[in-house]
Design brief:
Layout: E1 2-7, H1 14-29, E2 34-39, H2 55-66, E3 69-75, H3 83-91, E4 101-108, H4 115-127, E5 131-132, E6 137-140, H5 153-173, H6 178-183
Protein name: NADPH-dependent FMN reductase-like domain-containing protein
InterPro entries: Flavoprotein-like_sf (IPR029039), FMN_Rdtase-like_dom (IPR005025), NAD(P)H-dep_FMN_reductase (IPR051814)
Pfam family, one: FMN_red
Length: about 180
């Protein structure tokens, strides 16, 4: 099973650090999974404006299409997900993420920003009919040290639990037939 861990920002390193931790937890639970972290900062982004996609955006879309499941990581800026993440969603066909498991991790500068996951990111993933796990992990700047290492034991516990539930969703989703997905 191909798992795409998406670092949905071009700024900062905290979301990437979270994904690296989750990658390790998933590998412990499901060593056969093929995991890849996609760092948006490594792509030349293009605004969806009707013009043909550049090569980087074609690669980004292809990685989303080929994945069987996703861990979406996003910082919260100005009470919203980054524009590059929304723009990436705008490039995807509505069936790209259909019936595929998705777990969410987010990071913000205030504790109230966790509501962006509920009020903005989950509705987007619901539009795609993704199988969004019921638990997500929200981190705050105080959960990291100066090198962006997670220093909060509670966060590590929540990330382990997120990985456990995600792996269960992946196993459940493997019984969905491609034919059923294509028809719906």
């Amino acid at each position: 099973m191909k798992i795409l861990l998406v670092d949905g920002t071009v700024l900062g390193r905290k979301t990437g650090a979270i994904l690296q931790e989750i990658e390790g937890y998933i590998q412990e639970l499901a060593p056969s999974f093929e995991l890849e972290i996609m760092y948006f900062s490594e792509y030349e982004h293009q605004i969806v404006d009707g013009t043909p996609l550049n090569d980087d955006m074609k690669k980004l879309v292809q990685k989303f299409e080929e994945a069987d499941a996703y861990i979406m990581a996003t910082p919260i800026f100005q009470g919203s997900i980054p524009g590059v993440l929304k723009n990436a969603f705008d490039m995807l066909h509505p069936k790209t993420m259909r019936y595929k498991p998705v777990s969410i991790v987010a990071n913000g500068g205030t504790y109230q920003h966790h509501l962006v996951v509920e009020n903005q990111l989950k509705p987007i993933l619901d539009y795609f009919r993704a199988l969004v796990t019921p638990n997500y992990v929200y981190t705050h700047a105080t959960h990291f040290d100066a090198e962006n290492t997670i220093i909060d034991d509670g966060v590590h516990d929540r990330l382990r639990e997120l990985a456990r539930v995600f792996v269960q969703y992946c196993e459940m989703s493997s019984t969905l037939s491609k034919e059923a997905i294509d028809q719906n």
